[in-house]
Specification:
heterodimer; A: about 110 residues; mainly beta; seven-stranded mixed sheet; B: about 110 residues; globular
Chain lengths: ~110, ~110
């Protein structure tokens, strides 16, 4: 089954404790992206990757890091989480940059205390 | 910078009604427009993708239209059902992808 898989789905952590949210897709998609969704602000792009070893900042990259060492994986790293990073995070992928149909993961709800 | 607006923010209708959701965007130079459904606390499910060269797409009771020149798209839902209750988002792509804030639809039995 074609899918985008995120882990963990739910996480409660404390300020400053490094964490990684994994994202994996099994559709051989070139383009992958991370979004955060907050009430009243909608979906905002954090980082995106056009292909392996190619990443770029979205609208709200501060406090986040990403890497794309393999085509299927695109982890989101919070080196020192802060409470303002409490949010619902989505990973998405599409075959060809922004021209194709976008597939989303189920989301990861992160709470930073 | 592309801006995407969805009106209304919320809509409540009785079961069986036909309804239209609206999406407008400011830059007509787009690759495609996509409609998504999001259930509470869940991910986004793609409903319809309209390429820039197309005028409409249909899937079951859903029909989406695109008018690039006026910067508008509509999602038509026929014979609405309680199971259609969700938030509907549109997204427009050119060099990046921009999302509207969504319309929260409630279909009452």
């Amino acid at each position: 089954e074609a899918q985008v898989t995120q882990n963990p789905r739910y996480l409660i952590t404390v300020t400053g404790k490094k964490l990684t949210v994994t994202c994996s897709q099994n559709m051989n998609h070139e383009y992958m992206s991370w979004y955060r969704q907050d009430p009243g602000l909608g979906l905002r792009q954090i980082y995106y990757s056009m292909n392996v070893e190619v990443t770029d900042k979205g609208d709200v990259p501060e406090g986040y890091k990403v890497s794309r060492k393999e085509k299927r994986n695109f982890p989101l790293i919070l080196e020192s989480p802060s409470p303002n990073q409490t949010s619902l995070y989505f990973c998405a992928s599409t075959r060809f940059s922004t021209r194709g149909e976008l597939f989303f993961g189920e989301g990861s709800r992160l709470t930073v205390l | 910078k592309q801006e995407v607006t969805q009106i209304p923010a919320a809509l409540s209708v009785p079961e069986g009604e036909n309804l239209v959701l609206n999406c407008s965007f400011t830059d007509s130079a787009i690759y495609n427009l996509q409609w998504f459904r999001q259930d509470p606390g869940k991910g986004l499910t793609s409903l319809l993708l309209i390429q820039s060269s197309q005028r409409e797409q249909t899937s079951g009771r859903l029909n989406a239209s695109l008018d690039k020149s006026s910067g508008r798209s509509t999602l038509y839902i026929a014979a609405s059902q309680p199971g259609d209750s969700a938030t509907y988002l549109c997204a427009v792509s050119n060099n990046d992808m921009r999302f509207g804030a969504g319309t929260r639809l409630t279909v009452k039995p």
